[in-house]
Structure formats: C-alpha cells, structure tokens
Write a structure and sequence with these properties.
The chain is mostly beta strands and 125 residues long. Helices cover 0% and strands 66% of the residues. It is built from no helices and 11 strands. Strands 2, 4, 5, 6, 9, 10 and 11 form a 7-stranded mixed beta sheet that branches. A 4-stranded antiparallel beta sheet has the order 1-3-8-7, with no helix packed on it.
Length: 125
C-alpha cells in the first residue's frame, strides 16, 4: 500500500558528498507517517540504522556517520533525504529507506513499516 523509491546512489569519491532521496506514495489506504529512516545492509538481512527522523523532529544517527550525516524532510512532498559529507570507504553499502506509520485500508488502523528496494553506494579512493 506504500511504495518507496530511492535515488541518488552510485559511485562517490572519498571525501566527497552524497545525497540520497526517498519518495513514497500511498494507494488503497490512508497512511499517517511517524518515522522516516535510512538503513544500510552489508550482508543479507543484516541491516544497520544510519539515520532516522520522526514527526516530532527527533533525529538519530549511527555512530559511524555522526557529524557527517543529516536526515531531512521535505514538508511539501512525500520525500526525505540523507546527506553524508566526507564520504569514507567504509560507507560503501546498499542503502535502503523505510517509513513507519499507521495505515487504514478500511478495516481499522494498524501499525506498518515499508521498505524501499535499496540502492548501491560505492565509495572510491
């Protein structure tokens, strides 16, 4: 019922900057978002939270990106971003966006989480 699409991945030079974008759309339901998140996955099914932002403005960051990363939201669109400065080789990963909230498909509200398909980020020296 919620579809997410990431953009902005690719090859990035070490020391440079990266901005990922995640847009989401809703069909067949109402959806009230609570949290927007970015994860990265080095190994299958081993996902690490990179950054999150909830509707109250609370931000969380992984230790590995603290001071270098910013998660932000476009309040006029169903879209949010992850910007990382001073990219490092260890930032090479598959990045996934995720939204959590409450949806109602006509049978009452329920808590849900939806994932994007993932986008590869590779940092070169």
């Amino acid at each position: 019922q919620v579809q997410l699409v990431e953009s902005g991945g690719g090859l990035v030079q070490a020391g440079g900057s990266l901005q990922l974008s995640c847009g989401w759309s809703v069909s067949g339901a109402t959806f009230n978002i609570d949290t927007m998140s970015w994860y990265r996955e080095n190994l299958p099914n081993q996902r690490e939270l990179v950054a999150s932002l909830d509707i109250r403005g609370m931000e969380k960051y992984a230790e590995a990106v603290k001071g270098r990363a910013t998660i932000s939201r476009d309040n006029t669109m169903n879209r949010f971003y992850l910007q990382i400065h001073n990219m490092k080789l260890v930032d090479t990963d598959e990045y996934l966006c995720k939204v959590d909230g409450v949806e109602d498909m006509g049978q009452g509200p329920r808590s849900v989480g939806y994932w994007g398909q993932g986008t590869q980020v590779t940092v070169s020296s």
